Amino acid sequence: MAIAKAERLMNLALCLLGTRRPLSKRELRGSIEAYLEAGNDESFNRMFERDKDDLRELGLVIETVENLEGEIGYLARRDSNRLPPVSLDAEEAAALGLAAKVWQQARLAGAANGALQKLRAGGMPEAGDPDEGRHSAIEPRIPVHEAAFEPLMLACRDRRPVVFDYRKSTAARPETRQVEPWALECWRGHWYLAGFDRDRGAERVFRLSRITGKVRSRAAAYTAEVPDVVTVRETVASWAGESADRSAQIRLRPGAGYPLRAKATAVREGGVDGWDELEIPYGHGLDAWLVEFGPDVVVLGPADLRADVLDRLRAVAGA
Q1: Global pTM value
Q2: Which ranges in 20-60 belong to alpha helices (H)?
Q3: What is the pLDDT of residues 178-202, one digit of tens each?
Q4: Would you say the C-alpha torsion 247, 250, 255, 260 has a positive or negative sign?
Q5: How far are the Cα atoms of 10, 49, 259 from residue 31, in angstroms, in the given order?
């Protein structure tokens, strides 16, 4: 049985590496003898999904592509699965090992470990950390809970346009977005995607937690040039008022709005009705962020910020 499975995996890997276009399940089933012998479609599907996951665990980069008819295809590009000569010293190897540990509690744990195995097979030295036991309690972790993360990460890597439904903080219903993804970055516990929004013809940043439904890939070339440096954090920070040179005064319900409290430059506790009064940096986009806190926040000033927040709240209420 082990030999039969190894042969089946090898045949599947050769099919995926040898094709120039994505192959559908139907085409793969007709090309591999073991799949032809599967009793029914359900048995084949279970066998194929297990084999595909096993190959990915072994380090094979398998792409999933949806064509214009909505049919799913698979391929493994040779350039994505070819490892150049590896030349790392012990300190560089240790840094990579630490970076891989970051993903152990996230969806990329298998990919990170597979990458280390590939590098070690290519000659990367084993790096032992004499302080590993002492520092294991403070190892870094990156949480990834959004289902959109993995398909967007692959789309960024492979330079594939995507389509997804996105709900803005001020909208009652999601809108369809066509995006050429550039980069993903985590900022203050949230993941963001930067890319070119085709419908709006401009760079946009999207928070992954606001993506609803499935991220669909499109087999098409980018229409906009990808910048050499994508400043995701700086863009999000400016929209959240991080680079502001003005101040806003808000009233905050006790025990609520910790992110706002962390930004405050001045706090007066126990004001009107026991609410706290805060002074926070005021920049472009702060109105959209304040709306997310709903009834826990009251804007005292400036007047233009208060008016913008009220307009957004009325738009949500009337949607």
Answers
A1: 0.46
A2: 25-31, 33-36, 41-57
A3: 999 998 887 766 788 989 999 999 8
A4: negative
A5: 13, 16, 55
